[in-house]
Fold this sequence. Notes:
The complex is a heterodimer. By secondary structure, chain A is mostly beta strands. In chain A, 0% of the residues lie in helices and 45% in strands. Chain A starts with a strand and ends with a strand. In chain B, the strands form two sheets. In chain B, strands 2, 4, 5, 9, 10 and 11 form a six-stranded mixed beta sheet that branches. In chain B, strands 1-3-8-7-6 form a five-stranded antiparallel beta sheet, with no helix packed on it. The A-B interface holds A 4, 40-45, 90, 92, 97-99, 101-103, 105-108 and B 4, 31-32, 34, 41-46, 49, 89, 91, 93-95, 99, 101-106.
Amino acid sequence: IAGITQAPTSQILAAGRRMTLRCTQDMRHNAMYWYRQDLGLGLRLIHYSNTAGTTGKGEVPDGYSVSRANTDDFPLTLASAVPSQTSVYFCASSEDSLNTGELFFGEGSRLTVL
Amino acid sequence: KNQVEQSPQSLIILEGKNCTLQCNYTVSPFSNLRWYKQDTGRGPVSLTIMTFSENTKSNGRYTATLDADTKQSSLHITASQLSDSASYICVVIHSGSARQLTFGSGTQLTVLP
């Protein structure tokens, strides 16, 4: 089934450790995104990429980095995890970065930082 | 500040009943608005999109409305089913050269048998 694949589905991590969340899409979408979802808050954009080779900062980028070496993959890295980064992380994609608005989401990665 | 507020935060109804979820926004300039359904433990999935010129749009038992003058949207669910239990998220898309989305925090709907 075509779509977004995220890994791992869940992870418990000690503070200070480095962690990479993986995201792969097979829809050949140009744009990809990373969001975090916290209880009582709307999804917040961490980083985005309008096309392979380019990335940009979202609303809450501090402590996170991304890369977009090719169309399909968009990993999110936490260089030194802190407890405030405990959250559910969603990767998403869209056909383009224009104002069509439809995002296709992965199933999420639940991260707990102790 | 661009904001999207949804009400109620949570709602419990009996199977077969109807319900209406509300979304108020202060986003400007406005491009369009989407409703997403998010099942527990899953990613959000788009239900419908409302553009500036549309007032009503249906997708099966889901009917979305938009009043661009008052900056309000609603999602009406008819003859609810147990599978409708989910979080419903309103997302407003800003127009302009930089595409931006503002997400509401969602309404958690529980349908009981």
